[in-house]
Design a protein that fits this description.
Length: about 140
């Protein structure tokens, strides 16, 4: 079957936008990863250092970094600051239970307040990755 062919699977995966997700909470990391599959290629990191390594090792384009703010070793802002110079077209989404004003986000970075529901995350990511996406608020 062509769908089981590994070259076909690799070509299909290459067409998907890639998202690097960094969070030190394994439950949140798994929930985000599962909610974004299969429409995106997901690179998972449980620490900031691991996310930096994933970014350095991945040769393709990373379209979006989704990171928790409060992680051990380095904050999500420190992570984004570290990887964004090598990936200037990568968009940044920082999640946190802290107020946005406390985080030191750079211009153009987006914020998602925790807790959030899955559809909020999916809608925001779709809007970030697909410029033709039109958000229609509920009435």
């Amino acid at each position: 079957m062509p769908y089981e062919d590994s070259s076909y699977m690799q070509q299909t995966a290459a067409l998907k936008p890639t998202i690097l997700v960094a969070d030190d909470d394994p439950v949140i990391l798994e929930a985000i990863s599962e909610s974004l599959n299969p429409q995106y290629k997901i690179l998972i990191a449980s620490t900031g250092a691991e996310a930096v390594q994933r970014s350095e090792e991945y040769s393709g384009e990373i379209h979006l970094l989704v990171t928790d703010y409060a992680m051990k070793e380095m904050t999500g802002v420190e992570l984004a600051t570290r990887v964004s110079p090598q990936r200037p077209h990568m968009k940044i989404l920082v999640m946190s239970g802290f107020p946005r004003g406390m985080l030191g986000l750079k211009e153009g970075w987006l914020f998602l307040a925790k807790p959030f529901i899955e559809t909020e995350l999916q809608t925001l990511i779709t809007a970030l990755i697909d410029p033709t996406f039109k958000f229609t608020p509920a009435t």
